[in-house]
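Lecture 7 notes: from sequence to structure.

We start with a single chain of 269 residues. Read the sequence below before looking at the structure.
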Amino acid sequence: MGAKSYIWKLPDTLPSHSREVAKDHGPDMQRWQTRVETEYPHLVAHLIWDRDRLAALEQAVDQVMADTDGIAGKDLLRQSLLNRLTGLGLLDTLLIDDRNTEIMVNGPHAVFCEQQGHIIAVDLQFNDADEVALLAQRLAHRAGRELTTEHPWCDAQLGDGSRIHCVLPPISEQPVLTIRRAPRQPLEVMDYLDGGAMSLELWNDLKRWVGLRRNLLVAGGAGTGKTSLLRLLAEQCGSDERLITIEDVRELNLRHPHVVSLESYRQHT
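Now the structure, written as C-alpha cells:
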C-alpha cells in the first residue's frame, strides 16, 4: 500500500490573531526557513508529503528553532514554518488529488491540470503574476536551482521524482510553472503488455536489438512513458557493460551495476 499523501495546513482552531503573530516574526521565519533549506536540503526536496517525510522535517525544524523557547506563540510559528516548507498555496488541493498527473500554470489566471491524458481548466486564480513567480522560485529552490530575472528558466527534478519547469519574464510574457508528478510506481514491462502499448513479440525484438547494439529512438508525447521504456531497455544490457547516460534532468535512475549518470550543464550568460 502506498504512503498516504499529506499537506500541512494551519489548524482552523488557531486564534484569530495567529497570522498576525507569524507576520510579526517575518525576519525570524525567513531566517529559520533559510537554515532548514540550507542545512537539510534532502528533507525539503519533495512535492507530496507522507507521514515519514513530515516527521523528519519536523525534527529538523525543532533543531533550527531550539533557541526560541522565550518567544511567545512558538507552536504557532513552528506550524507556520512547516506550512512554508511544505505547502504550495493554491496548488495544494491539486497536488493531493492523485488523478492529476500534471499541473500547468500559465500566469495568474490560467491554471490547468492533466487527468488520464486530458487537459482540463481548473477554477483557481492567483492574485497576480508576482504570486506565481514567488511560487516558482520556491519550487526551484527546493530542487537546488536558482530562478531569477538573470536566470529566468529552470528545469529540475525534486527528491520524490516530480519534474518541474519554471519560466519567468522576460523569456515568457507571464510567469509559467509546470509540475509533472512522479508516478507512485514506475512502469514495468507487464504494464506495457497488459495495456496494449506493445506486444510480447515487439518486446522480444527490442531486447534482441539492445543485445546487438542497434541504435534505437524512443519518442513520444509528454507523459507517455518514454523514460520508463528507455529505462527498461537500458536494463537489458549485460552486467559487464558500462552505461553512460546524459540527461537534461537526471531521471532514468537505471537499475544496473555499472552506470555513470550525467546531467547537462547550462552556463547562463
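The two ends are 47 Å apart (CA to CA). Keep this in mind for problem set 3.
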